[in-house]
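Predict the holo structure. Ligand: pyridoxal-5'-phosphate.
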Amino acid sequence: MLPSSDAISPQSAPIPLDYQATTPCHPEVVTAMEPWWRDQWGNPSSRQHRLGLTAAAAVQVAREQLSICLSCQAEQLIFTSGATEANNIALLGHARAVARKRGKPGHLISMISEHHAVLDPLQQLQREGFRITLLTPQPDGLLNREELEAAITEDTQLISVMLANNEIGVIQPLPEIAALCRAHGVTLHSDAAQAFGQIPLNTKLVGADLLSLSAHKLNGPKGIGALICNPDTALEPIVWGGGQEQGIRPGTLPVPLIMGFAKAAELALKGLDSRSERLGALRNRLWEGLRQKHSTLLLNGSATARLPHNLNITVPGVSGNKLHRALRSRVSCSSGSACSRGEPSHVLMALGRSHQEAEASLRLSLGHSTTDKEIDQAIDAISEVIHKLRHKA
Ligand SMILES: Cc1ncc(COP(=O)(O)O)c(C=O)c1O
């Protein structure tokens, strides 16, 4: 029998502060998806009957709506299963297409603080003969632009720099990196999974040739995302099939998820400024509250170039294992990415934190429904746990 969600009582649930791992679907997103699961169940590639044509028309409306949210052309949007797949298509698909034209594999540059959905495809490209350079961020998590420029060589094909980091929330200066890429004739890819819906994202201003998105980070459904492609950017598929999505991402389109993605984007952009301001103030209150009680806490990542809903701190002198175990019943948070496979955060270690410090770190990420009361309760819970661990040692 499949498990039921009734088993979890909301009264005893820990305070949710892990919204960068994923977010709940907005009720209006669930409503927008509903008819497309049940009544309008057509395949948008079926062009010979009404069910299929209705589904295709709906996908087109959703595509246009998303493109308005992103200030791009509807044709630039390739639906994928999420940001992982979008990153894989961008990196493998572009690198292989260019290598085929040039007759040999070239050079790609990225950062060691990227998500595994970028680092792992780069590792695959390395196995295929491509040269990969991974730059170390500065202690505040930001890219050093001089180092980036110095790393570019004649055979550099692509640079991949995420817009906002999933662990430390640091926002990279993408428009400046894009200008550098243009000056050197290099393609720019950016993983914007954590940025879309949280900060204004105008694809023209960001300037990337390839941009990866995910719906479940902005109160949309899991299992849908997109790659925004500049039409002049060489790209080949990484899987082959029925030719959907301009042949770049074949497979039957998940109509309900696409409808949910478009609705989530529309809702996320509505009131984005006021929500950012509210969540930024709550995040600052969390940090100040914790720091007042424990002045030795360390902030990870830039204090200013940062997503408003992210806080990442190191608790010196305590065991990460014990810290997370003691917090588990009171606050839902993480020590790093949900995709970290239990290893200490490679992002925090890239900033210079030790293995032990990286383990004793908390990523606290706020969501639309986070309240003042939850933040105050979280300050008390985290402070108490730190106090107990420090005084037991
Ligand atoms: C920066 C970043 N990239 C990629 C992903 C993977 O996205 P998805 O779950 O849509 O495949 C995530 C989510 O964990 C992320 O935070």
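Residues 82-84, 115, 117, 162, 166, 191, 193-194, 214, 225, 338-339 surround pyridoxal-5'-phosphate (CB under 6 Å). Residues 102 and 155 are 10 Å apart (CA to CA).
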